[in-house]
Amino acid sequence: MGKIAFIAPSPEMLVVGREVIAELGMGEKVETFLGGLQEGVEIARQAEADGFDVIVTRGGTAKLILDSEIKIPLIEIPITIQDLAEALLAAQVITGKSNPKIGVLAFSNMIYSIEVFSKVTDIDLTIYPVCSALDFAKEVHRALSVQTDVIIGGIEINRLAASLGSKTVLLVSGKDSFRTAFLQANSVSYARKIEKERLQKFRVLIDYSVQGIIGIDCEKSVEVFNNAAERLLGCKAVAAVGRNIEEICPSLPVDRTLQSGQAGLGELIEFNGRKLVANIIPITIDAHVTGVMITIEDVGQIVAMEATIRKEIYSKGLTAQYRLSDILGSSAKMTEVKRIAEEYAATDATVLIMGASGTGKEMFAQSIHNASSRRQRPFVAVNCGAIPSSILESELFGHVEGAFTGANRKGKAGFFELAHGGTLFLDEIGEMGKLAQTSLLRVIQERRVMRLGDDKYLPVDVRIIAATNKNLAQLVKDGQFREDLYYRINVLPLELPVLKDRAGDAVSIAEYFITTYNRRFFRSVTLSPEAKEYIRVYDWPGNIRQLRNVMERIVVVAKENVISGELMRSMLDIPEEVIIPRTETVHEDISEKARILRVLAENGYNQKETAKCLGIDRSTLYRKLKALRIEVKKICNT
């Protein structure tokens, strides 16, 4: 969790700040401190050492912290026109004059709004800028030397002016200013947390890469396994990823690093008769070890790999791995959808993929990219629903140095730039906020982007594929999605069928997953005819994702090699009232159409009883009858 430091220059500001923090429910994220000016600078230095993400403060304290080379992003609580107006009204009250002579003593970062206000009013107001506490006495005396009626400033300035006999008004920020500052700090804190994770992984790879590179998580599961590691350890990456590192190379001493967070450098190990040197480096985020990066090399062989690793890191996540041939299913509906997708791939027009969760929207997006002329260029996937709306525009379009507090010091390319020449996949586009929708529409129309904080456009050549599990047309009617954007992205619609409507696919896909998990878990599980029938009649509300998870669980928990119908019924939570054909009448090659015709005949073509025997509701039966072109009335008349 990100940490925010609120440094209040005065007890009054501390009270207001704590009230606003409580109202926003940010008590666990924000720590409060009391200290103004130079004392505030020392608190900020300690906050930097303690790993705080953002500092919130005001006025002279903010100015001094910014000038002190403290690198934590700082959010300043502003002085608004309303705050200044209230101070001027108070000045009139305490002096009893309708237009008193007012002197405002403020740091340079507070002067702008005051200058604007003074220019548009006829108030007798003079600004006396200060740069440090050393200027306070000089500027107060200067103001009083010209018979100033009242001095407006901070606590220290007012205390000094009052001691010299002047009337004073404290310049304070209202609650709205506090609220705005804390919400902005929260957004910056979240963005910095994401950036910390990326930079930390990148730094580890760059600083310690030699030859073989292996990345594991805190459970010792392999996440990264490069070509050199394949050669040195005699294990293919496809077989290594997802397995425990101790199964692949038990001599690697990773436990000590995972438990203590201490790096193990120059560890001499022996593997299959070869001597290797290993560096074992912890990945630490917010004081917690989240994984380990391991580099290995032959003793005596040192190869510079930094440039190669940079290239791998840059391209990571920008490629599509699936092709249309990888998409399982041979039903008429899936065959038609794949045919349409292949035709879409031959064009550069925008595709909108619609389908329920788990139907394979990203697989189709990657497959269309890999079947297109852009297959050798980047494929960039963005989950619009997973990125907070406050930073989505920065992620999509990038930003320049100093675009906002906490921005990358060298700027950052957005997803559109990264996808230049290739495909940008916008998943869950229905979750995108209205502001981001407007910016996206402009980019689609103009084919160019402007980074946040920049003043020039960059042309981009990007093919857009969007996906959603929502009814965008209904969202347009409800005012939640821009109509013009909807028509811009809905050029080539592709609707993916749910698994229950893909006749015959469920069993064949289940068998594929069973084979896959048999290899992974060293099992030899098969499905009985009864188990296949339960798979065939089940509705699969979670689609392919649910089917895959159930098959994995079956392989793991099965005590027998042949999965019984009873175990499958239990796994799918199918009620015992649901009747399926007896074991001896089940044939593995029976078609769905033939099965429905048979059950119809057995029940005298009573559709209610037929649906009950098939374990589906009547609406599902009607849909299947229509899809399979079964005319019940004609059958009854024969």
Automatic annotation (TrEMBL):
<dbReference type="InterPro" id="IPR011991">
    <property type="entry name" value="ArsR-like_HTH"/>
</dbReference>
<dbReference type="InterPro" id="IPR058031">
    <property type="entry name" value="AAA_lid_NorR"/>
</dbReference>
<keyword id="KW-0804">Transcription</keyword>
<keyword id="KW-0805">Transcription regulation</keyword>
<dbReference type="InterPro" id="IPR000014">
    <property type="entry name" value="PAS"/>
</dbReference>
<dbReference type="InterPro" id="IPR002197">
    <property type="entry name" value="HTH_Fis"/>
</dbReference>
<dbReference type="InterPro" id="IPR025943">
    <property type="entry name" value="Sigma_54_int_dom_ATP-bd_2"/>
</dbReference>
<dbReference type="InterPro" id="IPR035965">
    <property type="entry name" value="PAS-like_dom_sf"/>
</dbReference>
<protein>
    <submittedName>
        <fullName>Limonene hydroxylase</fullName>
        <ecNumber>1.14.13.48</ecNumber>
    </submittedName>
</protein>
<dbReference type="Pfam" id="PF02954">
    <property type="entry name" value="HTH_8"/>
</dbReference>
<keyword id="KW-0560">Oxidoreductase</keyword>
<dbReference type="InterPro" id="IPR009057">
    <property type="entry name" value="Homeodomain-like_sf"/>
</dbReference>
<keyword id="KW-0238">DNA-binding</keyword>
<dbReference type="Pfam" id="PF00158">
    <property type="entry name" value="Sigma54_activat"/>
</dbReference>
<dbReference type="InterPro" id="IPR027417">
    <property type="entry name" value="P-loop_NTPase"/>
</dbReference>
<dbReference type="InterPro" id="IPR025944">
    <property type="entry name" value="Sigma_54_int_dom_CS"/>
</dbReference>
<keyword id="KW-0067">ATP-binding</keyword>
<dbReference type="GO" id="GO:0016491">
    <property type="term" value="F:oxidoreductase activity"/>
</dbReference>
<feature type="domain" description="Sigma-54 factor interaction">
    <location>
        <begin position="327"/>
        <end position="556"/>
    </location>
</feature>
<dbReference type="InterPro" id="IPR002078">
    <property type="entry name" value="Sigma_54_int"/>
</dbReference>
<dbReference type="Pfam" id="PF06506">
    <property type="entry name" value="PrpR_N"/>
</dbReference>
<dbReference type="InterPro" id="IPR010524">
    <property type="entry name" value="Sig_transdc_resp-reg_PrpR_N"/>
</dbReference>
<dbReference type="InterPro" id="IPR003593">
    <property type="entry name" value="AAA+_ATPase"/>
</dbReference>
<dbReference type="Pfam" id="PF25601">
    <property type="entry name" value="AAA_lid_14"/>
</dbReference>
<keyword id="KW-0547">Nucleotide-binding</keyword>
